[in-house]
C-alpha cells in the first residue's frame, strides 16, 4: 500500500478564530498573518491505494463549490477545483476512487465532493464510483445542525449523498467498506460524532496495531494544535476537546501511529513526541507524501 498527500483548495482564515483563546502574541509565533489578521491553511486529503483492495480518499477539502462572493468571504484562494488537479498529478481521477472517508461534513472537509461552481448550475456530486463513509452520529448533526454551526454545513450535501445510494453510516470502530484495515476513533469536542480514521499499522504488539497513520481532521488541525491546551474558536466544547486530545495523543505515541494533518500548510505527516514536562510535540515531519509506503 502507498500513501499520497493530496492538496485541495487553500484558505485564509482569521488567526484568532483558529487559535481560540490563545493570544495573538503566542500564536503568531506559529503562523504568518496578513493585513486582515488571516493565516494560511491547507485543505489536504490523504490517498491510500490499495487499502483493503481499494483506492481510498480520506476527505476532499473545501473544493470550489462556492459562488465567487462566498469564495471571497471564506478566504478560498483558487477558483478551480485543486483537489482534482492534485489527484491527476498523483495518477488518479475522481472516478478511480472506491471509498471516500469523511471525518465530518463541514464544508472545508466535504466541499470537494462537489463539482466546481458554475453560474445557474445545481450542486453536483463527484466520485461516481465511491462509497461515502460518514459517522452515524455526525450524520444526524449534518441533517439537523445547531444554529451555532449551521453555516458550516452544505445544505444540499446530505440529500445528494443519500440519493447516490452509496452512503455508509458508521456506528462503531469499523466500516463495511474498509473492514479491519481502518479503525475509527470518535470525538465530540469539535463537532458531535467527528470520526478519526486510522490506517491500521503492520506491526502487532500485545494485540495492538503499531505504526499506522491517523487522519487528525479538526481534533488536531496542524502542528500548533498538538499542544493540548490550544483549541479553535470553532470547537463546540473546548474543554472536552482538550481531554479527548490528551487521550488520543497518549494512544498514538504509545503505538507509534503517525499524525496526518489536513490544515497545516507546511506539514502533512509527523510522529508524536512528549518532553520531560509532558508536553506533546512532533518530529520526523514530512511536507508531502508521494507514494510513501506504510511502515512501522
Explained architecture:
It is a single chain. The chain has 296 residues and is α+β, with helices and mostly antiparallel strands. It has a single domain (2-293), classed as Ribonuclease Z/Hydroxyacylglutathione hydrolase-like (Metallo-beta-lactamase, Chain A, 4-Layer Sandwich). It contains 8 helices and 17 strands. It has helices at 15-18, 24-27, 68-73, 82-89, 107-110, 136-143, 157-164, 238-254; strands spanning 2-7, 11-14, 38-41, 44-51, 54-58, 99-102, 131-135, 167-170, 182-187, 194-199, 203-205, 208-210, 213-215, 258-260, 269-274, 280-286, 292-293. A 7-stranded mixed beta sheet has the order 8-7-6-5-4-1-17. A 6-stranded mixed beta sheet has the order 9-10-13-14-15-16. It has a two-stranded antiparallel sheet with strand order 2-3. Strand 9 and strand 10 form a beta hairpin. The mean pLDDT is 96.
Describe the structure in brief.
This protein is α+β, with helices and mostly antiparallel strands and 296 residues long. Helices cover 20% and strands 27% of the residues. It has a single domain, classed as Ribonuclease Z/Hydroxyacylglutathione hydrolase-like (Metallo-beta-lactamase, Chain A, 4-Layer Sandwich).
User: Order of strands across the widest beta sheet?
Assistant: 8-7-6-5-4-1-17
Distance, first to last CA: 13 Å
Query: Under CATH, the topology is which?
Result: Metallo-beta-lactamase, Chain A
What percent of residues are in strands? 25-35%
